[in-house]
Amino acid sequence: MNRYKELLDLLATFEKDFEKFYDKGNKSAGTRVRKAMNELKRKAQDIRKEVQDMKATETASA
Questions:
Q1: Rounded alpha-carbon distances, angstroms, from residue 33 to 38, 39, 46
Q2: What is the pLDDT of residues 3-55, one digit of tens each?
Q3: DSSP letters along 15-43, please?
Q4: At what angle are helices 27-61 and 2-24 packed, to 10 degrees?
Q5: Cα–Cα distance for residue pair 45/49, rounded to 1 Å
Q6: 62, exposed or middle or buried, with CB in 10 Å at 0-12, 13-18, 19+?
Q7: What is the pLDDT of residue 5?
Q8: Quick check: 57 and 35 in contact, CB under 8 A?
Q9: Greater pLDDT, 60 or 10
Q10: At 59, is the pLDDT very low, low, confident or very high (cuts 50, 70, 90)?
Q11: Please, is 29 exposed, middle or buried when counting C-beta atoms within 10 Å of its C-beta (0-12, 13-18, 19+)?
Q12: Taking the model in full, what pTM does it have?
């Protein structure tokens, strides 16, 4: 569950920029939102790879 907590913490850091962009129309915040979403994508890919590796290791040892 540590990875899940990491994702929640990461999302929480983006909250203010989402509000600034979507509610107030701040274009600079939009750039930061795009950057944050890219970071989230990388984190999700890392977790996906980790899960796949763990499944492969379990299958190999069974």
A1: 9, 10, 20
A2: 999 999 999 999 999 999 999 999 999 999 999 999 999 999 999 999 999 99
A3: HHHHHHHHHH--HHHHHHHHHHHHHHHHH
A4: 160
A5: 6
A6: exposed
A7: 93
A8: no
A9: 10
A10: confident
A11: buried
A12: 0.80
**Residue 23 identity:** D
Token pair 């379990």 in the structure block, residue? 58
The structural domains of the chain, with segments of one domain joined by +, span 22-51
Do 32 and 17 form a contact (C-beta atoms < 8 A)? yes
Contact status, residue 32 vs residue 15, Cβ threshold 8 Å: no
* Residues constituting the chain: 62
Q: Which helix (H) or strand (E) segment is 51 a member of? A: helix 27-61
